[in-house]
Amino acid sequence: MAKGKRENIKLKSTESSECYWTVKNKINTTERIELKKYDSTLRRHVIFKEAK
Fold first, then answer.
1. How many angstroms from the chain centroid is the CA of residue 23?
2. Which pTM does this prediction carry?
3. How many CA atoms does the CB half-sphere of 7 hold within 13 Å?
4. Does 2 have pLDDT greater than 70?
């Protein structure tokens, strides 16, 4: 079986302590990602940035 090039990353909200986990191919996407997702504590969509 081939070794996967995808790694789990943590997306952290810019406005609260909410977190999401997702998978990213680090070879094709070397920069940090920012996604607009739903924050359940604030009950609206906010920007989530990749955390270490």
1. 8
2. 0.82
3. 12
4. no
